[in-house]
Amino acid sequence: MHLLIDADSGIYKAGLSNETREYHAIDEGGIVAHACQYKKDMDAWIEQDGGVYDVCKHKYAGPLSYSLANAKSVFTHMLDIIPEHTSYQLYISGEGNFRYDIYPDYKGKRKPEDRPIHEQEIRKYLIEHWGAEVVNGEEVDDTVSWKQCTSSHSTCIVSIDKDLLNTPGLNFNYDFKNEKGEKVGKMTDISPNQANLNFARQLLTGDATDNIPGLYKCGPVKARKLLPEYNPEWLEIIMESYKMEFGDDWKERLELIGQLLWMRRKPNEWWTIDYEY
């Protein structure tokens, strides 16, 4: 079995675990009056103190060698807990992503300062020492998805990203913990019907993490009520919901959301309501 590893999350995990974040309360004289790790603790201190302060967030990284050691540990552990694999390939994000071209607000809530301080150094380490492949023009999710769907050999996507539950085939969540809190991972075999159902429900809810809107006030609970299980008529159900909410603009809106959410099953693929499953 060949592993298709979405390594972006591992980069974040390795970098952020070597960082410390602090909130500083700055008084009118520019002096740090108080510092703590969590925003809620800072808010509580200011409320108790009763003063007026500017609150700034700072973050600091430990030695680069720690971040690189973390990266090695993350991916070594990942390979150790995945049974019966014979080969693997890491993929990391490069330049460009068609989703920003069609929807500039894509991932608009994410802030540059939230990225790991040692991100670029970890990327270089993975390319030079782990043979990581850089993905340009689309997301790593798309690449591992279409590679799995077009492969003639046994493959497994390795990722913690819920979006890849829209892709048929084996999926391994390396961050899954057992009842003891131990990271043991979880293997799921996603059928084509289940993958299509997962995608259909996302068309209803959108994806707040990536700043992709769905139907008004339609969360996971409502989506499951509309589509409690796989239904061959799922697209018709969704089309009717979009027509009710967006009127004459329903098709344009639905295809935009679909293109943002769809994990490609063929290279350079675009989802439309006429897509053949």
What does this structure look like?
The protein folds into 3 domains: 2-14 and 64-190, Rossmann fold; 19-61, no CATH class; 193-261. α9 packs across α10 (250-261). It has 10 helices and 9 strands. The model has no long low-confidence stretch (mean pLDDT 95). The longest helix has 18 residues, at 64-81. The radius of gyration is 22 Å and the shape is globular. By secondary structure, the protein is an alpha/beta fold.
Q: Structural class, judged by helices and strands? A: alpha/beta
- Spatial sequence of strands, sheet with the most strands: 6-5-1-7-8-9
Total number of distinct structural domains: 3
Number of helices: 10
Query: Could you tell me the mean pLDDT?
Result: 95
Strand content: 15-25%
Strands, total number: 9
Q: By CATH's scheme, which homologous superfamily of the largest domain applies? A: 5'-nuclease
Give the overall shape.
globular
Q: What is the percent of helical residues? A: 40-55%
C-alpha Rg, in Å? 22 Å
What is the name of the CATH topology of the largest domain? Rossmann fold
Largest sheet: 6 strands, mixed
Poorly predicted regions = none
CATH level 1 name of the largest domain: Alpha Beta
By CATH, the architecture of the largest domain is named 3-Layer(aba) Sandwich
Distance between the termini: 25 Å
Order of helices and strands: EHEEHEHEHHEHEEEHHHH
